[in-house]
Write a structure and sequence with these properties.
Blueprint (H helix, E strand, L loop, with lengths): L1 H27 L3 E6 H7 L1 H11 L3 E6 L1 H9 L5 E4 L5 H4 L3 E15 L7 E2 L1 H9 L16 E5 L4 H9 L10 E3 L4 H8 L3 E6 L10 E5 L12 E9 L4 H10 L2 H9 L11
Parallel strand pairs: 1-2, 1-3, 5-9, 6-7, 6-8
Antiparallel strand pairs: 3-10, 4-8, 4-9, 4-10
Length: 270
């Protein structure tokens, strides 16, 4: 009788143990819900996320939108982790949100390949985007109207540019793009146009020209305009979110970020 009871107990323990193993395995393999800023994703490149999926065995359910939208989804439980091109409000950190800088990106000035101007001063840049200068001949180019293209005012790219380059000047523009990354396509197809965007994977080819500012290129350490990219989580990162952050601090990811023109984190972990 005792033997039968012992056998039953053993079977029950095996069933419980197997259930725990299966649950842990299923949990580990659940897709990571990741909401990314369009600007961040374009600069980093989707191939880096694919590398993470291959290395970790964790799939990613990806949402792409503005920095605000990405963080909003994470805060309301629609995402496990978000990436943004600007720091979250300090008041939000009081509610337990964590942000981690994982890259710096030059905020570059781009123009159509038809443009012959290679360099602008900060003052000329301010005058162009504020409407004081409207013709390329005023900055050493041909007698052609300057076409100003900007991303939506709700994007981090717009807010960062007005703060870093224009010192909060009002922008006068000709065309408005829905997403920050859409300005690359518009400038590519629009002669004499000018805009701004983070340097990264999406600008590594030759679809547009980059304009130096005060003699400094985006590759120079003293280039004047840099954005920071952040991961944001609710509470301390854990599970698949932590694995993704740790991956971006790995040498493999740092190397890929450098090739895209970004500056990776200096530490080995966050």
């Amino acid at each position: 009788m005792k033997i039968k009871i012992i056998i039953k107990i053993i079977f029950i323990m095996i069933a419980i143990f197997s259930s725990l193993i299966f649950s842990s395995f299923a949990e580990a393999k659940e897709p990571l819900r990741y909401s990314s800023s369009a600007q961040v994703l374009a600069a980093v490149g989707e191939d880096l996320l694919k590398t993470f999926e291959e290395d970790s065995g964790i799939g990613i359910n990806l949402f792409v939108g503005s920095s605000d939208a990405a963080v909003h989804r994470m805060m309301h439980g629609a995402a496990d982790i978000a990436s943004t091109a600007e720091s979250i409000n300090y008041s939000r950190m009081d509610y337990g949100y964590t942000e981690i800088v994982f890259a710096k990106a030059p905020l570059i000035i781009i123009t159509n390949v038809s443009t012959t101007v290679k360099e602008l001063t900060v003052k000329q840049l301010q005058d162009i985007f504020s409407g004081s200068i409207s013709n390329w001949k005023e900055v050493g180019g041909p007698d052609k109207q300057i076409i100003v293209v900007i991303p939506d005012r709700n994007t981090a790219a717009y807010r960062n540019f007005t703060m870093l380059a224009l010192k909060r000047y009002d922008i006068k523009y000709d065309y408005l793009a829905y997403r920050s990354t859409d300005v690359v396509s518009l400038v590519k197809h629009m002669p004499w146009s000018i805009s701004f965007i983070s340097k990264g994977e999406h600008t590594s080819g030759d679809p547009v020209k980059k304009i130096a500012i005060d003699g400094r290129k985006a590759e120079d350490k003293d280039y004047p305009f840099f954005q920071e990219f952040y991961f944001v989580t609710k509470g301390e990162p854990k599970g698949a979110s932590k694995l993704l952050i740790d991956f971006f601090f790995s040498e493999k990811a740092k190397s890929a970020l450098k090739k895209s023109g970004l500056i990776p984190p200096t530490g080995v972990t966050w």
